[in-house]
Amino acid sequence: xxxxxxxxxxxxxxxxxxxxxxxxxxxxxxxxxxxxxxxxxxxxxxxxxxxxxxxxxxxxxxxxxxxxxxxxxxxxxxxxxxxxxxxxxxxxxxxxxxxxxxxxxxxxxxxxxxxxxxxxxxxxxxxxxxxxxxxxxxxxxxxxxxxxxxxxxxxxxxxxxxxxxxxxxxxxxxxxxxxxxxxxxxxxxxxxxxxxxxxxxxxxxxxxxxxxxxxxxxxxxxxxxxxxxxxxxxxxxxxxxxxxxxxxxxxxxxxxxxxxxxxxxxxxxxxxxxxxxxxxxxxxxxxxxxxxxxxxxxxxxxxxxxxxxxxxxxxxxxxxxxxxxxxxxxxxxxxxxxxxxxxxxxxxxxxxxxxxxxxxxxxxxxxxxxxxxxxxxxxxxxxxxxxxxxxxxxxxxxxxxxxxxxxxxxxxxxxxxxxxxxxxxxxxxxxxxxxxxxxxxxxxxxxxxxxxxxxxxxxxxxxxxxxxxxxxxxxxxxxxxxxxxxxxxxxxxxxxxxxxxxxxxxxxxxxxxxxxxxxxxxxxxxxxxxxxxxxxxxxxxxxxxxxxxxxxxxxxxxxxxxxxxxxxxxxxxxxxxxxxxxxxxxxxxxxxxxxxxxxxxxxxxxxxxxxxxxxxxxxxxxxxxxxxxxxxxxxxxxxxxxxxxxxxxxxxxxxxxxxxxxxxxxxxxxxxxxxxxxxxxxxxxxxx
Length: 688
Fold this sequence. Notes:
The protein is an alpha/beta fold. α6 crosses α7, α7 (205-235) packs across α22 (671-687) and α9 (261-274) runs parallel beside α10 (292-305). This is Probable DNA 3'-5' helicase RecG. It comes from Candidatus Uhrbacteria bacterium RIFCSPLOWO2_01_FULL_47_25.
């Protein structure tokens, strides 16, 4: 008897070497094995007599071998050829295998067998090459005479071996269905064990489709209900309540700019959440430059004025330092103390206190009211006094464990959580993956719609583009040049920062002040370069995507992206967002050698779409949900069966999940569903 959690090496016939091969496919348990879904099927259902067998199509024969012989190929001396004569009542034919001399001993003579493959004519006679074979018995064939499953393989595993072990596991599988019979009847579902068996060994295409529908529903349903379950569980937690709207109005009156309608709406939604007795879990999404930081700053101010601390997590030191400067400028006259902590830098808006230990003490005793930093804030030695709000910028850069760790930095009440992203999430993904989050959206731009024109160039256009860049530089404007790599790679043959920096300095712009920025530089070096670029001391910056997030330099109006086909659409849009800020017109020049039709269509879509939300929908079509979220930040693993484009099944799964949670928020009456959810959540946290 086998259970989902049974380790694969407990399956009869799985030794150390075989287990290692399965591990390369990510298979370590029985559950992993039976959910190794076929990538296709060979149709060997049509059975013929030898004399009547059609040529060139998949067929199955029933007969026996009367002789075998092994020989070496006269062309390749190391290649063994096994030849057998197979016959039935209507005739005989030759069967050939290459590189499998053991078959002459393994296949019994004069014993009834199924033989599945394709008949070909060789030297005027019928012949079958490398067919599958199987003994005729009372049980249903597995490798022949049916829809035969095909799988993703790795070195050391064959389709036949995988089929054998999956069939063995299914026969001994002990599994209680998480959906009762009444539920299955209402949704026209087969049982879970029947679905698992049928997806691997279907009797027909119809049965395979029914099995696939059940398994796809399960994936969509558990994704939905796990999020709803987390939302309900969050309501059982206690959080501080912040309800001083008069204070909010006075803070808004002191702002240097007027909030957009979208910002006003987002602030209202956030403040409403902060007034509840359980922790907020809200995502603030918005176009690059739509003013998310200002919204977050208002929420932070309300929390700080109530006597609590705010922890602000940024994905990079560059962005953390920029947010520190923004908060420092916004609240310079408010008496609010803001601290910065990264792995290499410490600062605080408090006179004569820049020593790292002093800053850590200010965080722990509460005198540092806003702590802005990178993952360094999550170190065990970093303590806080009383956190009321955690803000996570570019939330997709942080894993679930990291977001939880940030909220657990406060003892007692659970802090509210505000996540932010400049990569808008398509509506389909919001419905599917973010059931535990409330979403606020910023669409309008504080300084008006950004004017950035995007053009695609071939390398033959380089001289013309560089002439245009020269004109812009002469007007006092600044340029970004982004490359995929830091150092040259002979194998990849794509642009690198170091090589392009050298070329630009020596050939194209010898009189222009050019800087270099990439991940291998120290934090102090990065800070110095950015400070020089921001001050206009550098006219051009050659960089990797380290500039992708958050960098705001008004004089930068040109973005050149080398080998643009190497980047995702969302990443390209983030890069494009570095220019054309504060009402200035920007140019985004994409250079690509067009390695494929798909790459060309992606870049053309990017050039024609400036709206981040429309671009996000396009990116989803091209990349799929797995690539969009990634396991690092969401715990999400790629669907094995489900397809988010199946909106009917997605809606059915959402409705079923809502009905169950509304009826029983704690899933007390749904033990099997609750166990399954808790197992999924545990795996999710482990992945992140």
